[in-house]
Amino acid sequence: MRPATLGELRGTPWETSAGRSVKVELRENLMRKLRDREPIFPGIRGYDDSVIPQIVNAILSRHNFILLGLRGQAKTRILRQLTDLLDEAIPVLADSELHDDPFRPVSVEGREIVDRCGEATPIEWLPREARYVEKLATPDVTVADIVGDIDPIKAAKLGTRLGDERSVHYGLLPRANRGLFAMNELPDLSGKVQVALFNVMQEGDVQIKGHPIRLPLDIMLVFSANPEDYTARGKIITPLKDRIGSEIRTHYPVTVEEGMAITSQEAWMDRGSEVRLPDFVAEMVEEVAFQARDDSRVDKHSGVSQRLPISLMEAVVSNAERRALELDETPAYVRASDLYAGLSAVTGKLELEYEGELKGGEAVARDIVRRAVGQVFARRASQVETGEVVEYFDSDHTLRLPDGLATADLVPVFEAVPGLLDAAGALAEGRSAADLAVAAEFVLEGLYARKLVARSEERGYEGVQGDAAEVAQAGPRRRWN
């Protein structure tokens, strides 16, 4: 049973640790995790040798810090996981707006409660989850929202002057006392609010409507921002920038393997029915994000969020699931062609430059998917012999996949192309007919992506006629089932 009054709390470790700041608390708990080899940020991948060591150093240094990075780089998730470094619960004065320490209340209200109740002062226990306050910065956020405002009605009821601390209606920042205050997209705050923030950080006071108010808050402030905005020429004021102890840069996955691990962790794949997802399809999904980040038609300042491959993976699996339901097929086999059915999960994630806008979002997304398929095919099929397949189509042969066939039933169709099933056998990730068919379609899609085979809605797969660049401009128009 936890103590419920100030008298019961006396003589406990909480009395000897009274006044321990939240930054010291985070530091001590982090040091314990490091000694015990516990994970610091579980579920955060790709940052073990870059971002996480810098965050650890910032916390050990008792710094307020900011994460600088493009969208979809797990900045907010990292900030929210900082609560794991807080104590499980801390004692606070009951009915205190500022979560006052029972032994060292900072608010006038808290001191009055202790003076009035003495050892019978009621104590509440504040869990770590309630000690995290988060705010998305927008231009319309005011000083009243963040710090507080003078309430004339409250002052009249208490019979105090307007400059009295008791007449303040507190904002988000004071209510985060003895906890963490996170501000996302910091540069979007107006200059006036930024000035109020650094006053609280440095001097512990603020002026509200001309009245100086002393706010000796115990808070760790953490921020996130786009690096393009976080400059003296951008939207951040220099004094606030100077008062943030550490600037830590986040980044997108460095390798496709890292990205695949993140997508596999985050994408919703448990559909209640069996789904067969070949590794080469998962690799193509991730490669789409890498190709988009390198595409000159995509805005580099906006970035390509890691949510793109996550959403695309869910859409790709859903298309395979839909096909399996329509054809009464079990399990659902995810195929290379399903990537084109998931274009709706790509177009909304891309901020295009002028050239991309002229071509159109769907055309750019389709071209990126095609390049991703070709890149994965080049890595996977470097030792696979496909010359016979290309020669077959160059000899004025075509191959059109019938509608309404289950995946396994496509094998007899693919047998018409000399060498196709042999090449597919080297890439198949299973021994069933369906696995072979999935690999055979991957070979055809890879050859199409590499501009060695053409594909159209009317004729299906065929030989490349004329200039390969002109064929590429036609784009994949085949209807998939």
Secondary structure layout plus pairing:
Layout: H1 6-9, H2 13-16, H3 22-35, H4 51-60, E1 65-68, H5 75-81, E2 89-93, H6 108-117, E3 123-127, E4 132-136, H7 143-146, E5 148-150, H8 152-158, E6 168-170, H9 172-175, E7 179-184, H10 191-202, E8 205-208, E9 211-214, E10 219-225, H11 238-242, E11 246-249, H12 256-266, E12 275-276, H13 279-294, H14 307-327, E13 332-333, H15 338-341, H16 344-347, H17 354-359, H18 361-380, H19 387-394, E14 398-399, H20 411-414, H21 420-427, H22 433-449, E15 453-456, E16 460-463, H23 468-474
Parallel strand pairs: 1-10, 1-11, 4-7, 7-10, 12-13
Antiparallel strand pairs: 2-3, 5-6, 8-9, 14-16, 15-16
Helix pairs in contact: 12-13, 12-14, 13-14, 13-18, 18-22, 21-22
Question: What can you see in these coordinates?
Answer:
Mean pLDDT is 89; it is low at 466-481. The chain has helices spanning 6-9, 13-16, 22-35, 51-60, 75-81, 108-117, 143-146, 152-158, 172-175, 191-202, 238-242, 256-266, 279-294, 307-327, 338-341, 344-347, 354-359, 361-380, 387-394, 411-414, 420-427, 433-449, 468-474, and strands at 65-68, 89-93, 123-127, 132-136, 148-150, 168-170, 179-184, 205-208, 211-214, 219-225, 246-249, 275-276, 332-333, 398-399, 453-456, 460-463. The protein folds into two domains: 6-249, Rossmann fold; 256-474, no CATH class. Helix 12 (256-266) crosses helix 14 (307-327) and helix 13 (279-294) packs across helix 18. The strands form six sheets. Strands 4-7-10-1-11 form a five-stranded parallel sheet. The chain is elongated, with a radius of gyration of 30 Å. The chain has 481 residues and is of the alpha/beta class.
